[in-house]
Amino acid sequence: MPPEALKGDRIHITDKDDIFYLSTVLRMKVGDKLLITIWPGEANEACASGSGQGKVYEAGISEIGRDGFWLDIARELPACEGRGTRITLYQGLPKGAKMDEIVRKSTELGVCRIAPVVTARSVPGADGVSAAKAGRWRRIAEEAARQSRRIEIPEVLDPMGFEAAAAGLKGEGYDLVLVLFELEEGRTLKQALREGHGGVAERAGEWAPKVAVFVGPEGGFENEEVERIIQEGAISVTVGETILRTETAGPAAIAMVLYEYEL
């Protein structure tokens, strides 16, 4: 919830989507209790930066009217600090509605930022994907975060070109950049994580490492694209002998990174 929703010891919910979710999906009524997170700023930017934690309140619904839901705050709860590992998924734009599922599953697993990327093998016309579609993905991320009870909502960027994504890597300050490449034979994702490139493995429990994962669209990356990312410090890895679908590869890699560094 935005900071303006907090009214002293009460919370006022006026957003039509939130009202629909509470009244129609959850069928909540006066007297029901729920947890509400109040963000100091843009919620979907806090996860990627690792800052700007919101405040979590336990509150009960006291009024339901034309102006929305009114809740009485019972107590403030300790805010979860979220994942220690901050993962950004650079996803090559796939066909159809596959990006919806990628955003949904990645959010459930704990990704902090999703960057849609137009690559050489992206579906024709992908470079014309509008910000409106990115807005849809942001709504999916918010819904998935709410369903999985995540305090942090991943940041979903507007679609970008491949060169812009590659050129911007060094400026992001990543501790580890991985590119999933089906032709890689010398290093598995497991090996890359356990090698502790840049000291990530040894320090993962001490600070919040920033990890980037590049996944191609259907057909994967072209060799020249992989070489370009490697020039920016990325490591080419394989996730096994089988070829994963693009909508499977990203969530699988996120789960592997979190398992190795946190679980």
CATH architecture of the largest domain: 3-Layer(aba) Sandwich
State the major sheet: 7 strands, parallel
Shape: elongated
How large is the share of residues in beta strands?
Answer: 15-25%
- Rg (CA only): 20 Å
- Count of runs of 4 or more consecutive helical residues: 10
Mean pLDDT: 84
The CATH topology of the largest domain, please? Alpha/beta knot
Terminal CA distance: 29 Å
Describe this protein's structure.
This protein folds into 2 domains: 3-77, Hypothetical PUA domain-like, domain 1 (Ribosomal Protein L25, Chain P, Beta Barrel), CATH 2.40.240; 86-261, SPOUT methyltransferase, trefoil knot domain (Alpha/beta knot), CATH 3.40.1280.10. It is built from 10 helices and 12 strands. The protein has helices spanning 16-25, 43-49, 98-109, 131-147, 162-167, 169-172, 189-195, 200-203, 223-231, 246-261; strands at residues 6-7, 10-13, 33-38, 55-65, 68-77, 86-92, 113-118, 155-156, 160-161, 176-180, 210-215, 235-237. β4 (55-65) and β5 form a beta hairpin.
Short description:
The chain has helices spanning 16-25, 43-49, 98-109, 131-147, 162-167, 169-172, 189-195, 200-203, 223-231, 246-261; strands at 6-7, 10-13, 33-38, 55-65, 68-77, 86-92, 113-118, 155-156, 160-161, 176-180, 210-215, 235-237.
Write the layout of secondary structure elements.
Layout (H helix, E strand, L loop, with lengths): L5 E2 L2 E4 L2 H10 L7 E6 L4 H7 L5 E11 L2 E10 L8 E7 L5 H12 L3 E6 L12 H17 L7 E2 L3 E2 H6 L1 H4 L3 E5 L8 H7 L4 H4 L6 E6 L7 H9 L3 E3 L8 H16 L2
